[in-house]
Design a protein that fits this description.
This protein is α+β, with helices and mostly antiparallel strands and 169 residues long. Helix content is 36%, strand content 15%. Strand 3 (57-60) and strand 4 form a beta hairpin.
């Protein structure tokens, strides 16, 4: 495999929020920086930049990952979803409404990461979840100002309502 100089751009092709893109990037560019500054998807936030806070969480091939711990060059041939990709998803209207009802955000800095983690979890169609389970699912996302009670309540409410809806369908 030929060596690539850090000063030389390489080409990557990937799918972002359902759209196929090709870009030239420096090989050492972080995926979080690439999304924000090259693509302009600034909903992916950067907090700690070392994998702790979860603000930069995106979906990579169906699973939530930290975009600050990946290089942009690793997206070649893969599928990514950012918060911009789920923001208009009608299937998540209930989650948005529950966040509003339970005051699950204040400054909103962490919210995109939480929404990505939660939407990925909801895609697994959990039959039952209690507070302990939700706190475990959310343990990779840090919120500095709201606290977690409202966020946990919002997720629990969505799961409960979706399961009731399934039962009555
Ligand atoms: S910015 Fe990536 S985990 Fe904090
Ligand atoms: S709402 Fe401010 S950090 Fe979570």
């Amino acid at each position: 495999m030929p060596l690539i100089k850090s000063s030389e751009k390489i080409s990557v092709t990937f799918t972002l929020n359902g759209i196929k893109l090709s870009k030239n990037i420096y090989p050492r560019t972080l995926l979080s920086d690439f999304l924000r500054y090259s693509i302009g998807e600034t909903g992916t936030h950067v907090g700690c930049e070392h994998g702790i806070c979860g603000a930069c969480t995106i979906i990579f091939n169906g699973k939530p990952i930290r975009s600050c711990l990946m290089l942009a060059s690793q997206v070649n041939g893969h599928e990514l979803t950012t918060v911009e990709g789920i923001v208009k998803d009608k299937n998540l209207d209930d989650l948005r409404a529950a966040f509003k009802k339970h005051h699950a955000l204040q400054c909103g800095f962490c919210t995109s990461g939480f929404l990505i983690t939660i939407s990925s979890y909801l895609n697994e169609n959990p039959e039952y979840a209690d507070e302990k389970e939700i706190r475990k699912i959310l343990s990779g996302n840090v919120c500095r100002c709201t606290g977690y009670v409202g966020i946990v309540d919002a997720v629990l409410e969505v799961i409960k309502k979706r399961n009731e809806h399934k039962k009555n369908a």
